[in-house]
Amino acid sequence: MSDKNSLSGHRALVTGASGGLGEHFASTLAAQGAELVLAARRLSKLEDLKTRIEANGGRAHAVEMDVTKVESVESAFAKIATDFGGPCDILVNNSGVGQESWMVDTQEEEWANIVDTNLTGVWRVAKHAGKALMAAQQPGSIINIASITALRPSYMLAGYAATKAGVDQLTRNMALEFSRFGIRVNAIAPGYFKTAINDAFLDSEGGDRMRKRVAMRRFGEYHELDGALLLLASDAGSYMTGSTIVVDGGHTLVPL
Length: 256
Hints:
Blueprint: E1 11-15, H1 20-31, E2 35-40, H2 47-55, E3 60-64, H3 70-83, E4 90-93, H4 108-135, E5 140-145, H5 158-178, E6 183-190, H6 199-202, H7 205-211, H8 226-233, E7 244-247
Parallel strand pairs: 1-2, 1-4, 2-3, 4-5, 5-6, 6-7
Helix pairs in contact: 3-4, 4-5
């Protein structure tokens, strides 16, 4: 089974790779032999990760990409095609923003940014990744990052939860359309892992109350997402498409 987890010979694009889960996903894929294309809005934030991957014997490139802007995404995919050797056959669609507002207090600008980044951005990047693979007649794997908030409601997350539910359903529709081209599309729905988006809350009294409602009584560690990521990215998951893997320490099992 270890050979099936190898990503040698694969090229992986990770969006939102400048920190948090995106940075970890990129490092994990590189450790399994994948050539990485790191994407974020600011190139300067990718240089340290690129250097670390190369220092460990891997290959990595950095590309500027703002998933909310059509021109930026198109430019990034054009650069990947011309400068990095062709399409990425693995995409980790990770870019996202959080929310900390009650629904009635959410401003139009905040709502639009959440939708543009978390849902439209996922669609936009997957669309271009799929088109590039189809043109090259190359199979691939698209992994969208959803959330357990797509499955259960939570306070002050109406916009975030709605977009993640959209990602969950979009994953199945994309899988249906892309499967005949040999492109698998799946999602990972993480529970609560400490990131720049939520660390202040998780360290608060309210976060501690939430921790006690997780079946395992703790929040996740980044490495505990590696199994799901590598399963979906590699040949080990070659017969999986349209699936969402929940990794939440049993959080969604807790009765209401």
